[in-house]
Amino acid sequence: MEWLSPEEVGIILLSLRVATVSVLVSLPIAIAVAYGLSRCNFPGKAIVDAIVHLPLVLPPVVVGFALLVLFGKRGPIGGWLDDWFGVVVAFRWTGAALASAIMGFPLMVRAIRLSMDAIDRRLETAAVTLGASRPWVFASITIPLALPGIITGVLLSFARGLGEFGATITFVSNIPGETETLPLAIYTFTQVPGGDMQALRLSVIAVVLSVVALMASEWLTSRRRASSNHD
Amino acid sequence: MIDVDVEQQLGTFHLNVMLVAQAPVLGLFGRSGAGKSSLINAIAGVTTPTRGHIRINDVTLFDSTQRINVPTAKRRLGYVFQDALLFPHLSVETNLLYGLRLRSNADQFIQPSRVIEVLGLGPLLHRRPGALSGGEKQRVAIGRALLAQPMLLLLDEPLASLDVPRRTEILDYIERLRDEFRIPIIYVSHSVAEITRLADAVAILSEGKCVAVGDVDDVMNRMELKPITGRYEAGSIIDTTVTGHDNEFQLTTLQFSGGELIIPGLATRIGERVRTRIRARDVSLATTRPDGISILNVLRGRVIAIRDESGPLVDIQLAVGDATLMARITQRSRAQLGITEQQEVFAMVKAVSFDHRSIGYA
Question: What pTM was estimated for this model as a whole?
Answer without folding.
Answer: 0.77
